[in-house]
Design goal:
The protein is of the alpha/beta class. It has 12 helices and 7 strands. Helices cover about 55% and strands about 15% of the residues.
Length: about 260
């Protein structure tokens, strides 16, 4: 097995690594990071070999995951440019950076894959969209890519023009959901529930509702209707959410995320 390399071990690097460690052996993985502190910490926690430089990490791996912030790409790409070959598969996690742009940096003959995961990957509940020039990849390489991202949740190959939509739907949206859970718990707190308990009730309700959408195959509107009885309590709450424009707020938030992606 050719190694999986990570450049960057922040939130997303660690999230993917935690899944990858379930599917691949430590010897199949190598990483680099900016600071010696991060390298030593990850090594102590996982026993995974680290590279002294990004170029060394690129040299020793085949599947190279760029898990650094988009602002660091220029610097990192400069460091690895002369080390990557057409045999590498460079996996970019950066929103808004297209395969074409990355090929301009690394060379037209280089193989670039874009992946957009999310932080629930850390507990195996991630959602990742992957796009690539599919004819550039062998069946085995596609399988390994699905194995890497499947190790931390669901994964689907998608067309590259939908990548920014993936950022809206699943990349950034966990933050929206945390805001919602926090607000739900604050509401329960106002009604007297202790805070710790309120987070458990609110989070489990969101998790359960999400599982209902995925497992029942029902339209979310139908599931919503099932909770609302005539002249009941829930429809009173729905009326207030509609009055304060909850749907519109979410649509506008997605639009803002999308716009930002296109400016990265
Ligand atoms: N966070 C999310 O929810 C999320 C979701 C989808 C996609 N993404 C994408 O995932 C990528 C990583 O984001 P993140 O949230 O994981 O960032 P992060 O938590 O800030 O971590 C960035 C990592 O990059 C390392 N780094 C910075 N400059 C470097 C350099 N020159 N060479 C080597 N390593 C360097 C840092 O090293 P030190 O630890 O030593 O500082 C750190 O480990 C981004 O492109 C982001 O857009 C993130």
């Amino acid at each position: 097995m050719e190694k999986i390399g990570f450049i960057g071990m922040g939130n997303m690097g660690r999230a993917i690594l935690s899944g990858v460690l379930k599917e691949f052996s430590k010897e199949d993985i190598i990483f680099s990071a900016k600071s010696p502190e991060t390298k030593h910490r990850i090594y102590e926690q996982t026993g995974i070999e680290y590279a002294d430089s990004n170029a060394e990490c690129a040299n020793k791996s085949k599947y190279l995951i760029l898990a650094v912030k988009p602002q660091c790409y220029e610097e990192v790409l400069k460091e690895i440019r002369y080390m990557v070959t057409p045999a590498h598969i460079i996996i970019s996690l950066a929103p808004g950076k297209t395969i074409e742009q990355l090929k301009l940096n690394l060379g037209k003959d280089k193989r670039i894959v874009r992946a957009m995961p999310n932080t629930p990957a850390m507990i195996g509940e991630g959602m990742t969209g992957v796009s690539a020039v599919r004819e550039e990849l062998s069946d085995i390489e596609k399988k390994v890519l699905l194995q890497i991202f499947g190790s931390c949740g669901r994964v689907e190959f998608i067309e590259e023009n939908l990548m920014d939509a993936v950022v809206c739907a699943s990349g950034s949206s966990p933050a929206f959901v945390y805001l919602f859970i926090e607000a739900l718990a604050d509401g329960a707190l106002r009604c007297g529930m202790p805070r710790k308990q309120a987070y458990i009730f609110a989070a489990q309700a969101v998790k359960g509702a999400a599982s209902m959408v995925l497992e029942s195959g029902e339209h979310p509107g139908v599931l919503k209707d099932n909770v609302c009885s005539p002249a009941g309590t829930t429809i009173e709450g729905i009326a207030v959410l509609e009055e304060f424009g909850m749907r519109n707020a979410v649509l506008k938030a997605s639009e803002a995320v999308y716009k930002k992606c296109t400016k990265m």
